[in-house]
Each structure stands twice: as C-alpha cells, then as structure tokens.
Write a structure and sequence with these properties.
By secondary structure, this protein is mainly alpha-helical. It has one domain: Cobalamin adenosyltransferase-like (Hypothetical Protein Ta1238, Chain: A). About 60% of the residues lie in helices and about 5% in strands. The protein has 5 helices and 4 strands. The strands form 2 sheets. It has a two-stranded antiparallel sheet with strand order 1-2. A two-stranded antiparallel sheet has the order 3-4. A hairpin with a 5-residue loop joins strand 1 and strand 2. Helix 1 runs antiparallel to helix 2 and helix 1 runs antiparallel to helix 4.
C-alpha cells in the first residue's frame, strides 16, 4: 500500500514545498506550479483526442518536461540539484517540431481565431493556459529564484501549441477562421 492522498496538513491553508518549507496556498510560487499542473492537464486532454501517434508522443514528451518544470517551482532552491531538469535540448525539441509542422502549413496572412473544431479549440485552450503559466512564472521570478530556462520553455511551448492547433486544423480539413477587423 502506498501513501495516503490526504494528509490534512493543508487544512489550514498552507502547503509544503519539496524541501520542507511551508507556504500559504495563495503564494505566487504555489500559483505558478499550480498553473503548470493545469497546463499539463489540458495537454493530456488534448492528447486524448488526437489520432496522430507522433503528435500524441510529442505531447507526452512535453507533459514529462512540464512535470520537471513544475517540480522545480514546487521546491526550495536547496532541492534543485536533486530534480530532473529542462534544458536547451527540450527547447530545441519544441523548435524542431514547430519547424516541421510549419513546413506543411499555409503562410499566415491574418490573425487566426481559436476554434473551428473541438480538437483545434483544445490546442488553443492549452496555448492560453500556457501563456498564463508563463506570466505567473515570470511574476515569481521577480521575487524568487526561477531558472530562466523554465520561462524560455513555456514561451516556446505556447508557440508550439499555436502551430499544433493550425496543424490539427489542416489535418482535419478545417478552415482556419481569420480575424479581419472592422473595415
């Protein structure tokens, strides 16, 4: 039998970081890694709807990297050396994937509105949650130690999710909805 999921330690509105430090649950650090967790759940939801096995594998790789980012945000600096890391190879993976998808996509001539198909919408929801997680992580970096690579990774991931949404639309034969402002 494993550990119990409920510890009752958080009943007072505090939670523990890996390393033992306790913080209020509304602390910016808790919010930042909570948003990473939320993003990971949205990516898992998107992955569940995809038929393309290479896209599913890419998203699984991304989910694992996000868990690494979240583990750092959920830890005291003294624990960082004990954790798996996101590095330049993870960013390179996203950039290569973006470039590969971009080769097949038509050039963008206007802003694209999210939607057109439920799976395309899921990609855009994940993208916007990624941007929110990035903003919260940047805010945390103004007050506490955050590895710059984590912010870079989130920035590149939101680009990846945008391009993935476009690629999914192309694969499904869904016309992208272009935003054309009031003339």
């Amino acid at each position: 039998m494993g550990f119990k999921i409920y510890t009752k330690k958080g009943d007072s509105g505090e939670t523990g970081l890996f390393g033992g430090k306790r913080l209020p649950k509304d602390h910016i650090r808790i919010s930042a890694y909570g948003m990473i967790d939320e993003l990971n759940a949205h990516i898992g939801h998107l992955r569940d709807y995809l038929d393309d096995q290479s896209q599913r594998l890419e998203l699984l790789t991304i989910q694992k990297a996000l868990f690494d980012v979240g583990s750092h945000l959920a830890s005291t600096p003294a624990m960082f050396d004990k954790l798996p890391i996101v590095d330049e190879s993870d960013i390179h993976f996203l950039e290569q994937s973006i470039d590969k998808m971009d080769e097949e996509l038509p050039a963008m001539t206007a802003f694209i509105l999210p939607g057109g198909h439920p799976v395309v919408s899921l990609a855009h929801i994940a993208r916007t949650v990624c941007r929110r997680a990035e903003r919260e992580t940047v805010a945390l970096s103004h007050a506490e130690t955050v590895a710059p690579i984590h912010i870079q990774y989130l920035n590149r991931l939101s680009d990846y999710l945008f391009v993935l949404g476009r690629k999914i639309a192309l694969d499904l034969g869904v016309e992208e909805v272009k935003w054309i402002g009031k003339g």
